[in-house]
Every structure is written in structure tokens, then in C-alpha cells.
Amino acid sequence: MKIIIGCDHAGYSMKEKVKTHLHERGIEVEDVGTHSEESVDYTDYGIKVARKVSDGTFERGILICGTGLGMSMVANRFRGVRAALANDLFSAIMSRRHNNSNILVMGGRLIGDVLALQLVDAWIETPFDGGRHQRRVEKMDID
Ligand code: RB5
Fold this sequence. Notes:
- The protein is of the alpha/beta class.
- It has a single domain (about 1-140), classed as Sugar-phosphate isomerase, RpiB/LacA/LacB (Ribose 5-phosphate Isomerase B, Chain: A, 3-Layer(aba) Sandwich), CATH 3.40.1400.10.
- The chain is built from six helices and five strands; from the N terminus they run βαβαβαβαβαα.
- The chain has helices at about 10-25, 40-55, 70-75, 90-95, 115-125, 130-140, and strands at about 1-5, 30, 60-65, 85, 105.
- Helix 4 links the parallel strand 4 (about 85) and strand 5 (about 105).
- The relative contact order is 0.18.
- The site of D-ribose has 8 residues, from helix 3.
């Protein structure tokens, strides 16, 4: 699996830890930035990640901002993107099982790094349940 990852200044520190963790797991990571804690617009980085998930270049992405709210809002504007704001384990797991989420969004100012890595692991390892959930997910792509 190859994952594209992005953040704003509020998510930078967590993004670096997630990136290291993914490398340690042998997962290839494309980091679109930001690359420091200097203030930037979360939208720019949300767009970079969501566009490449939407067009199929990457199967999965991770986005981190202060709350996770802005990143999830912008990412979900892209067709085929199912970005899940998950700051707890149950949401991270269920976003995969029932919603086939393809972008995990976390709030760097809301949760600690240890939990963030647990969410990432659970989100990577949990498969989509399919079945009736496939039909429901397909209904999300509205023209
Ligand atoms: C940046 O201050 C903050 O607005 C951003 O990280 C995010 O929380 C937006 O939704």
C-alpha cells in the first residue's frame, strides 16, 4: 500500500510522526507538505491529497489539521473521496467497515500522537465489509 499524506501547520508535528510510523511499517508515503509549523491554508494541502485519491493515483490518503474539520470538508468535495474525520478508534474502524473510507482525517490539536498512530494502524488494517454497504457507498457519488 502507498499512502499520500498532507497537513497544515497545526498538523505538522503529528504528520511527521505518522510518516515515520508508516515507514517503519514498510508502507511507502508521498508527503505533499506542509513541511513546517509556519502558518498555511489547510485547503491547499487537502486539495493536493484529495485530488490524487479522487483520480486514482493513490488508493488511500491521510490528512491532519487542527481539528480535522477543514480538511474533511475540502476533501469530501472531490468525487470518489470518502474522507472520514476520526479522532476515536471506533470511528476509524467503522469508517473502513461501513463507509470504505479512503482518506483518514485527524485533528492534531484534539488527540495525542499515541492515539493517532493507533487510529492509523486500525484504519489501514480494517477491511471494508461490502455487501449492503457497497450499495450505500455507491449512492454517495451524486452528479
Ligand atoms: C488552523 O488554525 C486551523 O483552522 C486548521 O488547522 C483547522 O483546524 C481547520 O479546520
